[in-house]
Design brief:
The protein contains one helix and nine strands; from the N terminus they run βαββββββββ. The chain is mainly β. It has a single domain (about 5-145), classed as Sandwich (Jelly Rolls), CATH 2.60.120. Strands 2, 4, 5, 6 and 8 form a five-stranded antiparallel β-sheet that branches. The chain has a four-stranded antiparallel β-sheet with strand order 1-9-3-7, with no helix packed on it. It is globular, with a radius of gyration of 14 Å. It starts with 7 loop residues before the first strand and ends in a 7-residue tail after the last strand.
Length: about 150
């Protein structure tokens, strides 16, 4: 994989289903230790934030969702608290043309790869994912790249 293993926000440990993302709260990590769903909070202390040009956040949904009307909300958030209880900042949202709303990916829009650029001086970064009951986006990835380009 061409991405640094320390810059993986979510991996393919578990399917992105309502049960995993919402019921088990895997989709809203609050620790720099990877949770059972494969989500983790990344500490940017060594990088002192992202720098003026920012970073690229990459969502990879490599399988079709269970249904065309499934809806996944995915936002990259930053905070100076590793548990994300305060100082929360939405850094970027993932969406494809057909979705209505911020950060919503429809089931008929995957498989896809979406790249978003962001800049922050916050210390901690996480991917926050949620969906509604019955939705299933199979396994997905969210990665950070220190190169702030829309196309990698």
């Amino acid at each position: 994989m061409p991405f640094d293993a320390n810059l993986v926000l979510a991996d393919s440990t578990a399917d992105w289903t309502y049960a995993n993302l919402v019921t088990n709260v895997y989709g809203a990590p609050t620790s720099t230790n990877k949770n059972a769903g494969g989500f983790v909070v990344v500490d940017l202390l060594a990088l002192s934030g992202t720098g003026a040009k920012g970073m690229a956040a990459v969502f990879i949904g490599d399988e079709a969702a269970a249904a065309a009307d499934d809806a996944l909300t995915l936002i990259i958030e930053g905070s100076d608290q590793s548990d994300f209880t305060s100082e929360l900042e939405a850094l970027c949202a993932f969406a494809v043309d057909g979705a209505v709303g911020s950060g919503i990916i429809d089931g008929d829009e995957v498989p896809c790869t979406i790249v978003r650029r962001f800049q922050t001086e916050r210390r901690y970064i996480r991917a926050k994912a949620t969906c509604v009951s019955g939705d299933d986006f199979k396994t997905c990835h969210v990665l950070l790249a220190p190169w702030p380009f829309y196309f990698l």
